[in-house]
Amino acid sequence: MSFKETIQSIIDRLQGSAVVKTVYGEPVKAEGKTIIPVAKIAYGFGAGSGSSKEEDEQGGGGGGGIAVRPKGVLEITQDETRFISFDENRNMIIGLILGLFLGLMIIRRTSKK
């Protein structure tokens, strides 16, 4: 397979998976609401080739990867549509844990004196 064919093969595979359903999952309907999961998707790929002048040989290769991370949900009701972010809850939990840790460290230091 030539370098150009390798690149085209990678691009074709990525285009086949880069569809709206990949970012916005299948809607779920319950209790008068429609919930649509939302994800962040990142693609990365690379390819290279080389040849030997002396032996008239060629070689090449390529590869790629994908990372999918849930970001939240769209909640659709008859009255409103809103985005509920998973990151806000995660950041709040991390802040709470850090605050508790720092509080325990301060209490420990003051009790030693």
Explain what you see:
The protein is α+β, with helices and mostly antiparallel strands and 113 residues long. The chain has one domain (3-85). The chain has helices at 3-17, 20-23, 86-112; strands at residues 28-30, 33-52, 57-76, 81-85. It has a four-stranded antiparallel sheet. The longest helix is centred in the last third of the chain and has 27 residues, at 86-112.
Strand order, main sheet: write it out. 1-2-3-4
SSE order in H/E notation?
Answer: HHEEEEH
Task: Assign an overall shape.
Answer: flat
How many separate helices?
3
Q: How many domains, as an integer?
A: 1
Number of strands: 4
Assembly type of the chains comes to: single chain
Q: Helix coverage percent of residues?
A: 40-55%
Overall pLDDT score:
79
Biggest sheet: strands, sense, closure? 4 strands, antiparallel
Q: Give start-end ranges of low-pLDDT stretches.
A: none
User: How big a fraction of the residues is strand?
Assistant: 35-45%
Radius of gyration: 25 Å
N- to C-terminal distance: 73 Å
